[in-house]
Amino acid sequence: xxxxxxxxxxxxxxxxxxxxxxxxxxxxxxxxxxxxxxxxxxxxxxxxxxxxxxxxxxxxxxxxxxxxxxxxxxxxxxxxxxxxxxxxxxxxxxxxxxxxxxxxxxxxxxxxxxxxxxxxxxxxxxxxxxxxxxxxxxxxxxxxxxxxxxxxxxxxxxxxxxxxxxxxxxxxxxxxxxxxxxxxxxxxxxxxxxxxxxxxxxxxxxxxxxxxxxxxxxxxxxxxxxxxxxxxxxxxxxxxxxxxxxxxxxxxxxxxxxxxxxxxxxxxxxxxxxxxxxxxxxxxxxxxxxxxxxxxxxxxxxxxxxxxxxxxxxxxxxxxxxxxxxxxxxxxxxxxxxxxxxxxxxxxxxxxxxxxxxxxxxxxxxxxxxxxxxxxxxxxxxxxxxxxxxxxxxxxxxxxxxxxxxxxxxxxxxxxxxxxxxxxxxxxxxxxxxxxxxxxxxxxxxxxxxxxxxxxxxxxxxxxxx
Amino acid sequence: xxxxxxxxxxxxxxxxxxxxxxxxxxxxxxxxxxxxxxxxxxxxxxxxxxxxxxxxxxxxxxxxxxxxxxxxxxxxxxxxxxxxxxxxxxxxxxxxxxxxxxxxxxxxxxxxxxxxxxxxxxxxxxxxxxxxxxxxxxxxxxxxxxxxxxxxxxxxxxxxxxxxxxxxxxxxxxxxxxxxxxxxxxxxxxxxxxxxxxxxxxxxxxxxxxxxxxxxxxxxxxxxxxxxxxxxxxxxxxxxxxxxxxxxxxxxxxxxxxxxxxxxxxxxxxxxxxxxxxxxxxxxxxxxxxxxxxxxxxxxxxxxxxxxxxxxxxxxxxxxxxxxxxxxxxxxxxxxxxxxxxxxxxxxxxxxxxxxxxxxxxxxxxxxxxxxxxxxxxxxxxxxxxxxxxxxxxxxxxxxxxxxxxxxxxxxxxxxxxxxxxxxxxxxxxxxxxxxxxxxxxxxxxxxxxxxxxxxxxxxxxxxxx
Lengths: 466, 466
Known about the structure:
Two copies of one chain form a homodimer. By secondary structure, chain A is of the alpha/beta class. Chain A folds into three domains: 2-35 and 236-304 and 413-465, FAD/NAD(P)-binding domain, CATH 3.50.50.60; 37-105 and 216-225 and 306-411, Polyamine Oxidase, Chain A, domain 2 (Alpha-Beta Complex); 114-200, de novo design (two linked rop proteins) (Up-down Bundle), CATH 1.20.1440.240. Helix content of chain A is 30%, strand content 20%. Chain A is built from 13 helices and 23 strands. Chains A and B meet through helix 2, strand 8, helix 3 and helix 4 of A and helix 2, strand 8, helix 3 and helix 4 of B.
């Protein structure tokens, strides 16, 4: 018995079936995938206190990945399934040097092209370190040979001049690059001193974000929407899924587990099994009657989830047409945090632009507290400080605040898992929140593998004892 | 009269036609595009002393961009034409942190995953600079506030620990990442000291390559092959093109220009025009009889071109299957220099892998000197030091040494243009070699615009005088 037909639950069903087990997945909703959701024209975003219907034009390109949106190239298990199931992939860009960084408090509120900040930061660091080395300040650490080698490397690292000064570099772009492309190559932008750069917010993870192991290039996305992954998994296990089965009770029993759920007609139904793998997100699980151990109950009750919010719009592709921005992410220190440009369908008339992606924290909580129209209004007001065109061009806004989505009630787990990694008698737990890769589909798969290993070990031991 | 139906010539014809001029392009070959070539099953690569026929399987995915292969997102003119002509684009990856760096002389010849070198380099730089700052070595340059700000920034820049030491970081990946994906998250790789790292060749532009203005993300490529660009331009001006017209003579005349060419039957044919725009590559132009000024002739004769060589193979996608490498470039300091993985068609059975891409220099000259089979053998021998699977899996090798390709005789211009930027009477010159963007299609377009401006100015002045 598997509770929840997200990636963790479907992986469990798929692999345990392959191992010869008979599996049933109870899924509360009418389709599988959990938070792996792609919103298209006519789709409904249901929250506990609102309902939105997606008004995008009907078009294969016009979709909004409301949940997971990218796959690291070393997420080998997920990618293995994509290969096996024929889910077509394309490149996803995190680090677009033509995208922008923005703060109302820096550079007079003018967005800065990422390449300039990055080039100036590299150049400034290389110049300062070269100065220290040349002044023999690091002779305690470095031999004469080390010094010569490192100085040579730094010259290229920062594109320093022959005197190891960071003067000006084409890496930073050319004047007017905010608005146009390759026309102006004559004049270089003046470099900005590191001392100045670091007084802005910009370096705060925005300049290191794509250095992270799970965010480095190459990143990938399914062609046509992330729910292609969910649909592909679902096709494998569709006969194992009982849809619209809302679990109301989970009990350890003497030799297994018993679950009570309301079936699609609302009729209370009981199901027994030797083992139960619970992949229900902790905030939902915490509301379901159970007889778990006190320690398991306590960890479920206290498990924190991100208050992730995303808001998408349909818009003519002004970012490509006016600014030569092809995919990637712009960052702002306003609440909306990120603006995502589509990494596909370049040059088509319209695209889906994500006007706000808030991971968590006070901004996430604040946006979660707003109604759909307020979220859109606030997002447009803030996003238009970055791209003035958002006002007027961006339309059909639709938002999702994961902490208010029924049967999810959170973005992804952020607590350290401990008790839930061990089974409670014959009840096992899985889900991205119980993995080292919280918030990633790869984590959901790994947690499923961990639970399967647990069930199989238990089962083998039980057989041996029997 | 326009000589050469490459991107420069076709841009000239297209835009001058729009301005009301009547244009004819003389093109030596049977199709347009010049060096914008994509090789597919059955295509012939003709060099002055060899001929190869592409043996790839017949498949839309199995193509080899033999010339230009990427478009910077700020190459606005080329991208504008792509938009207007409906050339579909997708993302091209230069900087894949999962690709490899290799030297027979470093790390015992074992390829190193780029992410590790990059993380260790950033970490080492950040640590050294932090040390210098903490030891007050840069107090001449930095205030106390600067120091605090920069130290905080560096901690994140290099992922330093709380004591500003570069200890170990997930950014570098995990043990076993050369071969597998996300399984092992427990143990971090030991960091390597900057002193050691810089003794390898790796930093020599390989770690800075994608920092360059024209190589930064986002890079783009046409879906289906770069010749989609050539075909799209050709469709615009096809009625202006005389194919298989091999120019043998170019003369300034009293009121214009006269060209003699061998038509497709080999018959010498004379054509007169008010203006002539010559886009023929300099090494070819140098062999054509003309009455240019001595200065123009001298610059043509001395114009240097790169000896670019590319060699492609069809292969099962072992780089994805075995190593989780999705697109991008691996680097080696062997002659072959680069290995390119396809940025599209992920997970399909076969792909086209570029086993060698040599820009220029002694390696380029050496490979140009080899025959097709020798090039393949040498490439496989060297590439298998990086990927052992190349021996056995890579097949249907096909090479192009641009310095030996009739009507091109070089990769791209590398001399500084000077005299040729000015017309010689009514003869104007264009082509990538006469632009600030040598080797780029965008440069060819810009040089065409420059020539068009010259013609129009001359024409307006002539009218005023007349």
